Amino acid sequence: MVLNEAAKLLGIALRETEDTLTRNMLAGTATAINAEGGSNGDNPTEISQTDTDYWTQVLLGNDARCMLDTIPGENRFGTGPVRDAFFGLSHTDMTSSLVAAGATQKAQYPNPTRPLEAEWAALGNIRFCISSIGSITPFDSAQGANVYNNFIVAMEAYAIIKQDGAFAQFLYKPAQFSDALMQTVSCGWRTAMVPRILNDQWLLNGRCTLPA
Among residues 20, 9, 116, 133, which one has the least CA distance to residue 68? Predict the structure, then answer.
């Protein structure tokens, strides 16, 4: 039972490490566009639908394909249709900003069983997924505030490339093989992967701050 629990935690650590490496690659290489449609007086401003509409326009102008299909309207109280959309990968601190910008929250989708677990809301043609390991550039705005990097991603924009023969592995060494007195069990994981952008024109970094 102890080994099974350790295996679960190591699996989480493996995938979060892959996510962190991918986040850092996107933060260092994706084309950045500052939000300008907000009203907090900073540069970049807080996010607004003016910004998401412009980011969408840029991607569509580069022949990028949406990741998600329309969710058509249904006869359900307090809901509305959701457009074809790109994914927005954001930090959890962005939740209140999205609400303030007028985003349609996941509970207001006509069919709430279709979104991803990490999805929070849709703003224009971008459906935002949030994570506590989302990308932040500290003290980088004109007024010294933290800047949040929102990676707006179209289909086939980037990939994780696995090295030949080096797929993710769970490693376990029982006690009889680890030390002379057979007292120590060891377990861990290893992987070899490279995150990379496949087409620079099919993703962008929408940079913003938080509302004043």
Answer: 116
Question: What residue has token string 């303030």?
Answer: 100
Give the Cα separation of 87 and 91 in Å (integer). 13
Tens-digit pLDDT profile for residues 96-108 = 999 999 999 998 8
Selection from 22, 16, 53 nearest residue 158 by Cα:
22
Asked whether the bond before 44 is cis by omega within 30 degrees of 0, the reply is yes
Cβ–Cβ < 8 Å for 129, 119: yes
The structure tokens listed for 26 are: 């996107």
For 93, the token pair is 């601190």
Express each pLDDT in 91-141 by its tens digit.
999 999 999 999 999 988 887 667 888 999 999 999 999 999 999 999 999
Rounded Cα–Cα distance for residues 203 and 155 (Å): 9
Q: pLDDT for 67-79, tens place per residue?
A: 988 777 777 776 7
Residue 6 amino acid letter: A
Kindly report the number of other CB atoms within 10 A of residue 32's CB atom: 13
The alpha carbon of 129 is separated from its chain's Cα centroid by a whole number of angstroms, namely: 6
pTM over 0.70: yes
Start-end of H helices in the chain: 2-29, 49-61, 95-100
